[in-house]
């Protein structure tokens, strides 16, 4: 046919083929564009999101470094793979007759294309590894700042160990891994028909690869002596008492590393020469020598550690222990701690209490864990509200410096009714939580509930909250769209709901192509087609604050306890601590894994309404901080607003690490340090009816030689395997004194009661234990709160709240009693004021005399007033007591407890003296406390009835 033989028909056929080819090319190009678009969609939306927060520079810095490293990794892995495969094919072509080879190897273009494909796959893997692991190391290496301090052995700046050494080790390990991969590939290829014995090309290939591996091993051995400065491992089997260079390292391991480096180079030359000359058997000799020397080195290390160091460990390790001690203190910022002596006197008086009224008035009577249950039951109002956490902070309210509890009322749409879980409700209408609750730390109602400073919807109380809406918080929030045609639910008000609209411009505009991009990114077709979404709408993306800061700056380690702050203008922000850590600080003991350096150099604020994020520089002199500042100059904010700075809290995690380290590294005498003779540890306490290690806690104290109370984070210490208190550590949180750490030591010659000793004495007190047991047998659970040691001038008080909670699911924990311990005395009363009054009567005779005089005046009987109804009351008491005895004998403990509560309430009422017609002003807290106790007990009895 002509169509196949040429002519006009054939021409038309050729034209048809060309059209078909162009269509195919267009389809292929379209497919490639779609694939590229899908792969780049995440990058594009990430950039738009970062740019909306003014952190596009951070995004481009990280992305450009990853791209450059990915290209470098791709070239390295792909080129190395192609070179290896090409040499293998070339060796096959030289060694075998073409008839002996597979046909594919003879087709040059096809086999080159296959090798390129395999190399590209390996290159992609390599680029992923290099950019994924290496981008941060590379940026730190290129932008690092000197520490201004050198190590005592190699005299290298600390920055070499923190930045340069990890980068060099990364390069060496990547190259060794790649070379070993190529060697295994070559061994597999050249094992066919024993080519490694017969083919000179195969031998040269293997020799070259072995030579590269040998040089890389030599480089690794050259770096190994520097590693000895940040570990206590002296061989595969033993550890030294020294973190850092030890006697065995100095005598054996450092010289061994250099010897093995030299042997590796000699081995490389030997193997190359042997392979060139065809002496395959002699190749084994240098390998055997190298392995033998490595084993001998390990053996020598074991011998020296066992027979030279161990019998005389302190004398051998003494100079290295000194470096361990000083450099660990520097790594954890412990070298500037001021130690003071605390006499631990029993000097509590009424005058001392009055001098320290700010401390006394801020003693906590609540704990955050039971308080969270109370907030969630009494301050949520709707099922879709939730308090995630209750935090502690301090504010100046009406001129008074006061410690407070507060929590954010966040939105949790998972608790919406199923019929309300529509796309519109979850994405357009229910967009935010609302307001917060705040309560006094030292006040409770007669029912044992917190005394609120801010409560209800909208918030009312001691301060104005101008923007109570919480769009960003701790909940696992979904992305939402604001400023749509749907009004946003704000808060419930009676039978109606109040609506609002988002008034900031910090979200991502959904106009133009943004709507398509983010609809694709969200996988939401409804977002794209919904007529409720307009060009004025904004997408609020990544609303969980932990996810938000990690997405912006993933190179920091973040504290897991953000806390809410009410600013002076009535807006609310979340505060979060960011930690800068390192793993190779010389001579420093690691606190977690290999991390042996930590600073809280960055404070982060996240606006709860707008989502704006600020990274504030808290420690500008920290070398890690300066390095990150060089890398990301646009990330940090230097000027810290005063109302933000006033709420900086020294983080508990950092303080726990420092306090734990100081328990060992406070010992300045090397022999004492070596023997750990004066090791301090955190005490234990009974919390929620379980013995647990005490955690640091915030309190308000007036330190010696200071005029005002301060917000202090503190922790007591006890000696190892002992329960008496040996010292306590604190850190200041306010003003220019922020971050100043101090330690008070108690006398070692006499016992200062520790927390667990106080807990044991509470358990052993017959009256207290009897009352607690009675409550627990009456269908309620007794919960022991945090035991707080409160230093006041030269003495120490212990305070522990006691909660009562019934066993049903909807019960509320109530502060029923407060235990106060001082010296050998323990009292338990309805509140702290009453307990303190009773304690002062015991330990301060002057206070007792004054109290008795006041009682005598107040209790003086009025002869003109007859006792009305005395017989009826006595009969009522008698009947109740009979019922109480009968309930006990029948084993009905719950009924007995209810009757006893009623008796106590009646007795308390009868012991009260009626107020005169014209009462004088009185500061007698004891009587107020007594009234509180009575009303509390009466309500408890009524509730139980």
TrEMBL record:
<feature type="transmembrane region" description="Helical">
    <location>
        <begin position="110"/>
        <end position="133"/>
    </location>
</feature>
<feature type="compositionally biased region" description="Acidic residues">
    <location>
        <begin position="849"/>
        <end position="860"/>
    </location>
</feature>
<feature type="region of interest" description="Disordered">
    <location>
        <begin position="845"/>
        <end position="865"/>
    </location>
</feature>
<feature type="region of interest" description="Disordered">
    <location>
        <begin position="900"/>
        <end position="945"/>
    </location>
</feature>
<keyword id="KW-1133">Transmembrane helix</keyword>
<dbReference type="GO" id="GO:0005576">
    <property type="term" value="C:extracellular region"/>
</dbReference>
<feature type="transmembrane region" description="Helical">
    <location>
        <begin position="67"/>
        <end position="89"/>
    </location>
</feature>
<keyword id="KW-1003">Cell membrane</keyword>
<feature type="transmembrane region" description="Helical">
    <location>
        <begin position="206"/>
        <end position="223"/>
    </location>
</feature>
<protein>
    <recommendedName>
        <fullName>UPF0182 protein FFL34_10225</fullName>
    </recommendedName>
</protein>
<feature type="transmembrane region" description="Helical">
    <location>
        <begin position="22"/>
        <end position="47"/>
    </location>
</feature>
<dbReference type="Pfam" id="PF03699">
    <property type="entry name" value="UPF0182"/>
</dbReference>
<comment type="similarity">
    <text>Belongs to the UPF0182 family.</text>
</comment>
<dbReference type="InterPro" id="IPR005372">
    <property type="entry name" value="UPF0182"/>
</dbReference>
<keyword id="KW-0472">Membrane</keyword>
<feature type="transmembrane region" description="Helical">
    <location>
        <begin position="160"/>
        <end position="185"/>
    </location>
</feature>
<keyword id="KW-0812">Transmembrane</keyword>
<dbReference type="GO" id="GO:0005886">
    <property type="term" value="C:plasma membrane"/>
</dbReference>
<feature type="transmembrane region" description="Helical">
    <location>
        <begin position="257"/>
        <end position="276"/>
    </location>
</feature>
<feature type="transmembrane region" description="Helical">
    <location>
        <begin position="283"/>
        <end position="308"/>
    </location>
</feature>
<feature type="compositionally biased region" description="Polar residues">
    <location>
        <begin position="928"/>
        <end position="938"/>
    </location>
</feature>
């Amino acid at each position: 046919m002509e169509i196949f033989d040429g002519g006009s028909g054939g021409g038309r056929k050729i034209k048809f083929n060309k059209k078909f080819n162009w269509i195919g090319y267009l389809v292929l190009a379209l497919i490639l564009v779609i694939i590229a678009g899908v792969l780049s969609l995440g990058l594009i939306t990430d950039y738009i999101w970062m740019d909306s927060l003014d952190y596009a520079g951070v995004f481009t810095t990280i992305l450009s470094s990853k791209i450059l490293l990915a290209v470098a990794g791709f070239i390295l892995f792909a080129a190395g793979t192609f070179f290896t495969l090409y040499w293998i094919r070339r060796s096959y072509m030289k060694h075998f007759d073409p008839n002996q080879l597979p046909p594919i190897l003879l087709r040059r273009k096809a086999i080159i294309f296959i090798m390129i494909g395999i190399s590209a796959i390996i290159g992609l893997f390599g680029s992923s590894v290099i950019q994924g692991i290496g981008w941060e190391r590379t940026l730190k290496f290129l932008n690092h700042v000197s520490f201004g301090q050198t190590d005592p052995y190699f005299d290298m700046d600390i920055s070499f160990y923190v930045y340069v050494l990890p980068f060099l080790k990364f390069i060496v390990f990547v190259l060794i891994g790649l070379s070993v991969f190529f060697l295994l590939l070559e061994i597999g290829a050249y094992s066919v028909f024993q080519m490694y014995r017969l083919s000179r090309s195969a031998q040269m290939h293997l020799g070259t690869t072995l030579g590269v591996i040998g040089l890389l091993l030599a480089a690794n051995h050259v770096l190994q002596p520097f590693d000895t400065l940040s570990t206590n491992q002296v061989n595969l089997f033993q550890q030294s008492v020294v973190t850092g260079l030890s006697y065995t390292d100095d005598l054996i391991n450092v010289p061994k590393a250099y010897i093995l480096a030299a042997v590796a180079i000699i081995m490389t030359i030997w193997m190359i020469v042997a392979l060139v000359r065809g002496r395959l058997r002699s190749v084994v000799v240098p390998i055997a020598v190298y392995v033998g020397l490595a084993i001998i080195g390990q053996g020598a290390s074991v011998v020296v550690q066992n027979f030279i160091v161990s019998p005389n460990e302190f004398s051998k390790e003494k100079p290295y222990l000194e470096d361990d001690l000083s450099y660990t203190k520097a790594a954890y910022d412990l070298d500037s701690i001021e130690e003071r002596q605390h006499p631990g006197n029993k000097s509590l008086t009424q005058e001392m209490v009055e001098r320290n009224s700010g401390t006394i008035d801020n003693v906590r009577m609540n704990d955050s864990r039971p308080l969270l249950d109370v907030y969630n039951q009494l301050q949520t109002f709707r099922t879709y509200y939730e308090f995630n956490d209750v935090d502690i902070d301090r504010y100046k309210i009406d001129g008074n410096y006061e410690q407070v509890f507060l929590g954010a009322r966040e939105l949790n749409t998972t608790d919406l009714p199923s019929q309300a879980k529509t796309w519109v409700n979850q994405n357009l209408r229910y967009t935010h939580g609302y307001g917060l609750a705040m309560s006094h730390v030292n006040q409770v109602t007669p029912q044992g509930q917190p005394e609120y400073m801010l409560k209800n919807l909208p918030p009312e109380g001691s301060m104005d909250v101008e923007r109570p809406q919480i769009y960003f918080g701790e909940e696992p929030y979904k992305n939402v769209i604001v400023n749509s045609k749907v009004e946003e639910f704000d808060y419930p008000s009676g039978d109606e709901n109040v609506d609002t609209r988002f008034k900031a411009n910090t979200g991502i505009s959904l106009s133009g192509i943004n709507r398509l991009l983010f609809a694709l990114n969200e996988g939401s077709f409804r977002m794209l087609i919904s007529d409720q979404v307009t060009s004025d709408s904004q997408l609020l993306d990544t609303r969980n604050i932990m996810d938000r800061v990690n997405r912006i700056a993933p190179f920091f380690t973040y504290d897991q306890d953000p806390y809410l702050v009410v600013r002076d203008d009535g807006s609310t922000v979340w505060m979060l601590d960011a930690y800068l850590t390192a793993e190779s600080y010389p001579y420093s003991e690691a606190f977690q894994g290999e991390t042996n350096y930590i600073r809280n150099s960055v404070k982060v604020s996240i606006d709860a309404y707008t989502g704006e994020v600020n990274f504030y520089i808290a420690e500008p002199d920290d070398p890690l901080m300066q390095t990150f500042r060089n890398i990301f100059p646009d990330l940090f904010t230097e000027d810290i607003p005063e109302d933000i700075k006033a709420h900086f809290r020294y983080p508990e995690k950092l303080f726990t690490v420092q306090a734990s380290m100081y328990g060992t590294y406070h010992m300045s005498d090397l022999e004492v340090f070596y023997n750990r003779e004066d090791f301090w540890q955190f005490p234990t306490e009974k919390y929620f009816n379980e013995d647990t290690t005490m955690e640091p806690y915030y309190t308000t104290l007036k330190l010696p030689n200071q005029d005002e109370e301060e917000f202090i984070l503190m922790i007591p210490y006890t000696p190892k395997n002992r329960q008496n208190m040996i010292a306590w550590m604190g850190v200041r949180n306010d003003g220019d004194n922020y971050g100043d750490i101090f330690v008070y030591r108690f006398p070692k010659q006499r016992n200062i009661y520790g927390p667990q000793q106080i807990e044991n004495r509470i358990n052993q007190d017959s009256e207290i234990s009897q009352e607690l047991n009675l409550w627990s047998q009456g269908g309620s659970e007794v919960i022991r709160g945090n035991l707080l040691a409160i230093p006041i001038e030269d003495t120490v008080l212990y305070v522990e709240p006691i909660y009562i909670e019934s066993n049903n699911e909807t019960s509320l924990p109530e502060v029923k009693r407060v235990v106060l311990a001082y010296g050998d005395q323990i009292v338990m009363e309805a509140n702290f004021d009453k307990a303190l009054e009773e304690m002062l009567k015991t330990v301060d005779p002057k206070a007792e005399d004054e109290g008795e005089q006041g009682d005598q005046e107040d209790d003086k009987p009025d002869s003109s007033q007859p006792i009305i109804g005395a017989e009826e009351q006595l009969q009522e008491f008698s009947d109740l007591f009979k019922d109480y005895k009968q309930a006990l004998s029948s084993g009905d403990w719950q009924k007995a407890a209810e009757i006893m509560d009623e008796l106590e309430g009646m007795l308390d009422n009868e012991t009260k003296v009626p107020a005169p017609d014209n009462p004088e002003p009185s500061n007698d807290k004891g009587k107020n406390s007594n009234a509180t106790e009575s009303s509390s007990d009466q309500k408890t009895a009524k509730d139980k009835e």
